[in-house]
Amino acid sequence: MRVLFFGTAEFAVPSLEALLADRRFEILAVVTQPDKPQGRGQRMVFSPVKQAALHAGLTVLQPRRVRSADFLEQARSLQPDVLALAAFGQIIPQPLLDLPPLGPINVHGSLLPAYRGAAPIQHALLNGETMTGVTTMWMEATLDTGDMLLQREVPIEPDDTTGTLTPKLATVGAQLLTETLLLLERGICPRTPQDHARATYAPAITPDDTRVRWEESAERVCNRIRALSPRPGVFATFRGRGVKLWRAQVAPERAGEPGQVLAVTRDGVTVGTGGGAVTLQEVQPESGRRMAAADWARGARIRAGDSFQT
Fold first, then answer.
1. Helices 13-21 and 48-55, packing angle to 10 deg
2. In the chain, what are the helix, strand and coil shares in percent, each to the nearest 5?
3. H or E element, residue 84
4. Which residues contact 119 (CB under 8 A, 6 or more apart)?
5. pLDDT per residue over 46-79, tens digit each?
6. CATH (residue range 207-300)
7. 40 pLDDT exceeds 80?
8. Edge-to-edge, what's the strand order for the sheet holding 148-155?
9. Tens-place pLDDT, residues 192-240
10. 3-state secondary structure of 297
């Protein structure tokens, strides 16, 4: 099967590797987002998918816009049987979707129609879900609205973060992708329209999402930290300086004003929220290293009654 693969983020790498490992698939090229400058030196960085593709000796294409006439012509010339997409980052236009005879297939990190959009894993954690999963779908020119093909559930553990949940879902997604493509080739792949009335959305994470909101409930504060860990992280401000919040848990039977330090113990720093309290367990002060919150509090001489900025 001649596959034109689209992917950018780490979530897509296992899907690419699964196709590479199966001799029933021929990867014609890998399409990924253009390199982006990162860090203080603004050094150009390859996407995880580009790194994996180059390591495997595959042809890499990096169009700024996949809807451009030049790229459409390039894709036609490759004559793919199927488009396989995972965490790519651009909407695929209808002329490109119509190109492959076996269809345009997307691997999405949620149980559709729940959490359509760019950040399904983060929003599932943010909302305190205990179950998520992966769906392969027939792509349409609108965002994550196409028919569902295969779907598999994955439980969310209480200590899961985006950093731990993403590889679990990516592994399941890779398995589902190969199963889906082989069923399509045999003409026996199930295809179920989504119930659009049940759709929920997971927009891209913004800088505002990374700001801790002490006025939220304790559960929501902890879920926000889980959802944005390890990147980009959730940040608080204490005495005018930023602090990244790495790990926290709900502090039972504690309550106080949002942002107020209620206690400093060996377990961490307990802070009031809009509903209950949380104990910060690991933090990273501005220009510092990740450390136990108790060690940070000792060095910064934090006491009960102090307050984070809100």
1. 20
2. 30, 30, 40
3. strand 82-86
4. 202, 203, 204, 205
5. 999 999 999 999 999 999 999 999 999 999 999 9
6. 3.10.25.10
7. no
8. 60-61, 26-31, 2-7, 82-86, 104-108, 131-138, 148-155
9. 999 999 999 999 999 999 999 999 999 999 999 999 999 999 999 999 9
10. helix
Q: Which pair of structure tokens corresponds to residue 150? A: 């295969």
CA dist 159 and 70 (Å) reads 46
Q: Report helix, strand or coil for 200.
A: coil
pLDDT at 272 over 80: yes
Q: Which CATH fold topology does 2-198 show?
A: Rossmann fold (3.40.50)
Q: Are 226 and 125 in contact (CB under 8 A)?
A: yes
- 252/15 Cα distance (integer angstroms): 41
Residue type present at position 184: L
Distance of CA 62 to the CA centre of its chain: 21
Helix (H/G/I), strand (E/B), else coil: 96: helix
Tell me, what's the pLDDT at 36?
87
Pull the structure tokens for residue 299: 């060095």
Domain boundaries, the chain: 2-198, 207-300
Rounded to an integer, the average pLDDT of 87-112 is: 97
Question: Using CA atoms, how far apart are residues 244 and 293, in angstroms rounded to an integer?
Answer: 11
What does the block give as tokens for 139? 């792509």
